[in-house]
């Protein structure tokens, strides 16, 4: 299924939702096999915004998703999450926003380097998601931007089967790790100097 087909599928699903609260299982089913990719995008995107506390909350969801990708990549939505319900209006809006996003992003994506973005990649994408979730969780100034961007790129790469985009996600993730480590070391050295602990 192409990313444009996924966008069409989400629009049809949004129009066909029954009245009343919508279980997450129904939303996952609407995505077909791409629910993990879409969840990466949905959880990572708000972390790009400078909203205090949002990264702390969403990083926990990203960590759970990372564990699912790592330990049970071929299973469906975990039972506890599947039973959660969203208001129908919120579910329709979420599906429509994702469909619009996929419609726009398809212009720069296409299936390529399939080995880098297929199902077999999820054994290392899980640990990567966990690591990026940890970086988002840490209180590093502007530290959410690169790890969140890395996970968004990875989600789109999975949905579009775009291995080149997955390489971009990995590169961005490596940059996030390097910059966060440098900032933490600088913070440690500055704190040690202020406390008179430096040699």
Automatic annotation (TrEMBL):
This is Exopolysaccharide biosynthesis protein. It comes from Pelomonas candidula. The chain crosses the membrane at residues 39-72, 123-143, 164-188. The keyword Zinc-finger does not apply. The lineage of its organism: Bacteria, Pseudomonadati, Pseudomonadota, Betaproteobacteria, Burkholderiales. It comes from the Bacteria. It holds the Pfam family ExoD. Keywords: Membrane, Transmembrane, Transmembrane helix. InterPro entries: ExoD.
